[in-house]
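Fold this: Exodeoxyribonuclease III
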Amino acid sequence: MPYISTVNVNGVRAAAGKGLLAWLAATEADVVCVQETRATDEQVRAALAPALDAGWQLSHAEPESKGRAGVGILSRRTPRAVRVGFGSSEFAAAGRYLEADFDDVTVASVYVHSGDAGTVRQDEKYRFMAELGAYLTARTGDFVVAGDWNIAHTERDLKNWKGNLKSAGFLPQERAWIDELLAAGYVDVVRHLHPGVDGPYSWWSYRGRAFDNDTGWRIDAVYTTADIASRAVSARVERAATYAERWSDHAPVTVEFAEKAYEPVVIPAPTGAVPGAETVCVQPG
């Protein structure tokens, strides 16, 4: 799957009417991870009906809390298997995690809580992070987990970092958690391909002139295991040209991956064979 995108749609029914459907019709993505659908399975299918009629396959984890959360995976092909949640009893029905298997790669869509520093909402976010982190670091195999992490990892990941030192999304404990994922072998693909630059931001508040001034946060990210990351060749934030053309307060983040390389293996010719009769086979590297 050469292209994987992720986007928080900020309500799938509203986004569908503003431009999400047009974007799905035009995108190169083979898999699109969506977050914050804020809808039931039936409502999501109704909102995305034109896209589904055009061939997109939908996997969705609806939220137990009406009007909150909800994650999905849209794909060109039907996944081999789909799993909701990551084994947590507290968050099993929260609509914040979904994964699907495609050939030898698993793709997950995640929506981490926004939190609120010093409140029970932040405590809930930390519990979710702890359980999710344990699950992700114990995984094996080729894996892509994309979504709205609601954490800006470094000062380069939000414009006004000095004014947000005590804000949820940029707290030391949250940022340290991302450090732990990276130490466990995950790669932030967008940052890997765009080192040493501010942004590229993926979320801008609807308030004030945040979008026009590019006063944003880079909280939508694609994390992969090392082998997958080595095949990432480009990454971009599909920022709308103007404020009026936005269909969410987030922009899609799209990563292009090269196909898995297969290295030639030379098998020596049997004893007595004609010189130069070696067989060249191709097998997975």
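Confidence is low (pLDDT under 50) at residues 262-268, 273-285. The longest strand covers residues 105-111.
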